[in-house]
From TrEMBL:
CDD domains the record matches: AAA
Alphabetical GO biological process terms: phosphorelay signal transduction system; regulation of DNA-templated transcription
Species annotation: Bacteroides faecichinchillae
PROSITE patterns associated with the record: RESPONSE_REGULATORY, SIGMA54_INTERACT_3, SIGMA54_INTERACT_4
Name of this protein: DNA-binding transcriptional response regulator, NtrC family, contains REC, AAA-type ATPase, and a Fis-type DNA-binding domains
PANTHER family associated with the record: ALGINATE BIOSYNTHESIS TRANSCRIPTIONAL REGULATORY PROTEIN ALGB, TRANSCRIPTIONAL REGULATORY PROTEIN
Record's keyword terms, sorted: ATP-binding, DNA-binding, Nucleotide-binding, Phosphoprotein, Transcription, Transcription regulation
Domain Response regulatory, first and last residues per copy: 6-125
Gene3D superfamilies named in the record: 1.10.8.60, 3.40.50.2300, Homeodomain-like, P-loop containing nucleotide triphosphate hydrolases
Highest taxon in the source lineage: Bacteria
PTM annotation (4-aspartylphosphate): residues: D55
Residue ranges of every copy of the Sigma-54 factor interaction domain listed in the record: 154-383
One GO MF term attached to the UniProt entry: sequence-specific DNA binding
Amino acid sequence: MDKIGKILIVDDNEDVLFALNLLLEPYAEKIKVATTPDRIEYFMNTFQPDIILLDMNFSRDAISGQEGFESLEHILEIDSQAVVIFMTAYADTDKAVRAIKAGATDFIPKPWEKEKLLATLTSGMRLRQSRKEINRLKEQVEVLSEQNAFDNEIIGESPAMNEVFSTIQKLSETDANILILGENGTGKDVIARLLYCCSPRYNKPFVTIDLGSIPEQLFESELFGFEKGAFTDAKKSKAGRMEVATNGTLFLDEIGNLSLPMQSKLLTSIEKRYISRLGSTQTVPIDVRLICATNADIRHMVEEGNFRQDLLYRINTIEIHIPPLRDRGNDIILLAEHFLDRYARKYKKEMRGLTREAKNKLLKYTWPGNVRELQHIMERAVILGDGSLLKPDNFLFHNTSKQKKEEKEFLNLEVLERQAIEKAMRLSEGNISRAAEYLGITRFALYRKLEKLGL
């Protein structure tokens, strides 16, 4: 017969443990034993058994089975799909029915019959394998759905974005730690998910923490987890994000917000490859790939003493720089048309495109909020717009006080003309005809201005 898998046996009778260990050793992949139920969670985290053989009675009494039911409840809180088989010397029909209703897989009386015990364990192992396969397929479907969803969001043909795509392709066979740099709204989280889908850890857990939205005092418990009673509101134990992400990928968004004390704890866990939950002295091994992102000047933070240089070395085996939208040329129009199509369908509007003037207006704007700002502006334009084409008046830009101040400082016609031509050339990627179209002048007029300005 095939190996049954990993078995955890929990019983306070050492003779029973010895006998079961001896009996099952030829049939099981590995066996661990515990004499008290308080060790179950530790073995579930470290040993990860396929089947738990659990005695119903321990120190409290010999016949009620209440301790067994309490242990079963705790096991199912940790892993709702755990395969638990009860054992007791005081078996009766009521207990068996109650055990199955409570979530146990089966019920074995003591003393056991060898063939029946092996058959029960084999059946339990098949159930465990079936549940694992179902979960794997569900995760695969979810990941493919997510991939299809954000594949449509990763739109770009500019040289800057092609360089990003090329880097991601080169990383597809590695699980090196990645640091993604870019302004707010450039799509760092989308790139992180693409990296995950193109990695060897695809189909394994993908866990995210937005460090910009979690208070510092909660970060440690979120990352490392906690034991019941570790603090006032810790009513039950909880695994941390790093533990949940084991064998998969952990995405730390806005890592520049991490305080120095927490940077130290994160570095320790990366180097030692284990963590301890708050309130616990036990260590839990981890194996995660880190993808981090920030809009901060991380190297300036290192120079200022606000970010640990040794942690930076650990998280940026490879750096990926996401370009701001203003430097992506015609990608602005491609994205605008994509969002137009999406929101026209969502709000049931008969809109099919943008006028040339509308496109020029979008290309001339500096997009301080990047792709996220473009998305919001396109949604608003579709909601409030009429007709089949969006016009310049459909787009309302809100300049910040800083931008207004900068505009007042540079109200010089020659400077403005130079800036406009330089931007048009950048957006058109050096194409004179397209740059002239952006500027609303002829090719020959643009040639004269380029010569005049020495460009």
